[in-house]
TrEMBL record:
Domain HTH myb-type: 9-61, 62-116
SUPFAM superfamilies: Homeodomain-like
Keyword field: DNA-binding, Nucleus, Repeat, Transcription, Transcription regulation
PANTHER family: MYB DOMAIN PROTEIN 55, TRANSCRIPTION FACTOR MYB26
Protein name, UniProt field: Transcription factor MYB26
Primary residence: nucleus
Compartment(s) where it occurs, according to its Swiss-Prot or TrEMBL record: Nucleus
Amino acid sequence: MGHHSCCNKQKVKRGLWSPEEDEKLINYISSYGHGCWSSVPRLAGLQRCGKSCRLRWINYLRPDLKRGSFSPQEAALIIELHRILGNRWAQIAKHLPGRTDNEVKNFWNSSIKKKLVSHGVPDLATFPDIPNPNASPEAFFSLNGNPNLIPSPQDHQLYLPSPTSMLQSGFDLANYNLEFVHFQPPPAPPLPDPSSYDPTWPWGCHPHLNQEDYVLGNEVGPIYIETKPINPNFSLPSFNSPSMAPMMPKLSETISGNDRILPSSSFPHEVVDPVARLPSLPSGSHPHAPHVPISHFDYIEAIISSLPS
DNA sequence: AATATTGCCAACCGCCTGTCG
DNA sequence: TCGACAGGCGGTTGGCAATAT
């Protein structure tokens, strides 16, 4: 079990690769490509199984690998993608050029996970469900009370929605075509009137978008997801309706290597500090308020930058 | 200085899926 | 339709280096 036929036909070496083995593999693949991996070790003169050769090439020898430590931006993107995708390391790695799934996985398990846990941040991908957007504040992911997480001078709470509850809510994905738009980002819009915030809708909404356009996260944030209905007979819910909530994780599920998630560095304009953009709300406002238009990404970046190394 | 512990990460294991005959 | 096979994935392990005792 687990051993491919190529591994059973002959005695194969295991364990760390020697420089000589690496050289053989590089020379062979550089000249002929890998073709069928099961035949690579024989043709390259290696006492390894094809699977081991494939892994060695993909994770270590490929010329387009970045190597080196992860940048804070990469870490932030990994955390954001992990929140959306869970432990789908291969999918996450596709959004990090030069990084492998193994590398991302190791980085998560050895670094990020421990940091987040030690700072009291729950595993965002497995956070308990929220029955509906009107659930009690306790049902939301509250960061309040942890000064390390939100460097806000104001007494603001930030509630983030649970992804998993929405995954189970049966949104009809077939009616949507998910597009990750490489867009000319709009200039940072003026803050909407806080009173216009939908208290049940913790995600930011671009005030200038029409009914067919939706933004998940902050309109000036690094992850910009636009969806358009492809079924003309399908009636979209109203823009601020909480019933929109179920669609988000379903859409997120469709993220693939062909989709584009833009790092903040690709934005031609300055990314506005989401915290600095927090509106001042009158005291005694909605207990969930303010539902700030802050992207998870920005928030995670703030976390990462505030963590001790 | 010696030993124990911890953390990192390359590599392996087992399983799943797609393809092909 | 079925079985064999290869590719691919996530979970786990084991070796090594760094750090602590």
